[in-house]
Amino acid sequence: MKGILTFLFLVALLGSAQPCPEGQVLCEGTEDECIPEEYVCDYEYLDCSNDWDETNCPCRPDQWTCANGECIWAGQDCDGYKHCGDNSDETDCVTCRVFQCEDGKCLNKYQLCDGRDDCLGGEDEEPGCPKCDPRFLVRII
Ligand SMILES: [Ca+2]
Ligand SMILES: [Ca+2]
Description:
This protein is low in regular secondary structure. Among the domains are: 19-57, Low-density Lipoprotein Receptor; 59-97, Irregular (Low-density Lipoprotein Receptor), CATH 4.10.400. Helices cover 15% and strands 11% of the residues. The protein contains two helices and six strands; from the N terminus they run αββββββα. It has helices at 2-15, 134-140; strands at residues 24-26, 34-36, 63-65, 71-73, 99-100, 106-107. The strands form three sheets. The chain has a two-stranded antiparallel sheet. It has a two-stranded antiparallel ribbon with strand order 3-4. It has a two-stranded antiparallel ribbon with strand order 5-6. A hairpin with a 5-residue loop joins β3 (63-65) and β4 (71-73). It starts with a helix and ends with a helix. Bound molecules: calcium ion (2 copies). Residues 76-77, 79, 81-83, 89-90 line the site of one calcium ion (CA). One calcium ion binds next to loops.
């Protein structure tokens, strides 16, 4: 009995055997393209002809993941510039990199003292802003 079970197990194993040698994976969507496992999501090379190995990879450790799954570089979140297509890098910021309005919105350095109220309360244009360029003081006063 045990011999039969072992035999059946081996048949099942062989029947479901991957077309790739051990340590390699099949490029999904291809017939027989095999690549080493470590080539999947190596963020360097497209090894599968259909790019499967670099598709749907999580963001790299030095990247920031947008709510919609896009990857942006670390440091681009909460900097006052929209990088994610869904703007998730600029929403719900606890701390802004350059300037934070009282309502929590992040501004970039070009929005400070540029003559336009980017904060709802206009605190980015208040006199005495240390980043103010003397050229703009006339307009502020
Ligand atoms: Ca940003
Ligand atoms: Ca401004």
